[in-house]
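Quick one: co-fold with manganese (II) ion.
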Amino acid sequence: MEKRNIGAIALAVAFVLQLNPLAASARSEAPWVARHGVPKLAQTPDGKIATNDGDQMPEIKYELGKQPLKEHPGGASNEATARNFPISKGLAGVSMFLKPGGLREMHWHANAAEWAYVVKGHCRITVIDPEGHHEIKDFGPGDVWYFPRGHGHSIQGLGDEECHFILVFDSGYFSEFSTFSVSDWLAQTPPEVLSKNFGLPASTFAGFPKKEVYISQGPVPAPLPLDPVPGSENPPPLTHKFSLGGKAPVTTPGGSFNVVDQRQFPISTTMTGAILKMKPYAMRLLHWHPNADEWQYYIKGRARMTVFGSQGRSITREFGPGDVGYVPMGCGHYLETVGDEECEVLAVFNSGNYEEITLTEWLAKTPERLLETNLSVSPKIIEAIRKGQMLFSLPQPPANK
Ligand code: MN
Ligand code: MN
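Sure, here it is.
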């Protein structure tokens, strides 16, 4: 009884807050304000912006592909983190290229799990978990890996072409203070300490790197044995590899959607990823994610995304290959293909369970009388909008084409 009353009071308070315009300033919990601090006014000279009332919206686009690459002997990378892309507090990403034999050195991340998608080429990962299980696996285009926070790992280019992959972390601050490289640690540690640690003379360590290696160039490693020597492996109970390209997507006339979360890939308890392919003139329908931020990397084609930020605000940006987009948790959004080419987008979420609510579905499941009262339109219109598509719109060219 007591509990019910408290519930009723809470509901009434929530109701009053929603209806009272004076409460709007007190109700400043636009998702990124609550989670990410005060938003910055979105400004790019060439980008399209559509804020309906001039209120502030944070920038949702970062041109990662146009940023200078940090070059190393065996490869190169650049990154989108909370430092250069302020909205991106919940997730951050790295675009990395490894030459054949190029080695992203042994390292771990203290504050983030790592989820990755191979765009092009081949590479090999090694990983160790706290129980001493280790896994060595080869990856090609469409493959995904997931390293739980703190698990040690390395990545090396294979084959005869450069390997390109996108790394996504479930913290916008993964990079600056929290990536721990083996060479950096060894360089920091006095030779006398290394001598004690390894039981070898201090002179053994004279030739070790003097600073962090990050990416080094070596020979292409030999193919993995088809039949490993019995006892030579100690694989983890849950594999770090998933072949997203090998999974059948949900396909509609307007596009396809292929998602992998921990239901298919049990080790990935904190992250989910998906490949969206949108046909020309199609649209990814109005929806939101109740449980996660969305980090996007545009692989092919062009699209326009609009993010709805509550309180009369929205922002629109156009994205092309190499661009990164970000949708804070709970913000409504949709994507429209631009041009005649199919658009392919990698979308990664900071939750192990994929969740979305699509506006069309909500309308379709809501009583017609309620919709008439809510939207003040005729029953005929209500009936029509309830029959909308799910996931993607039909790929319909505009009438003048
Ligand atoms: Mn890593
Ligand atoms: Mn989405």
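If it helps, Residues 305 and 392 are 14 Å apart (CA to CA).
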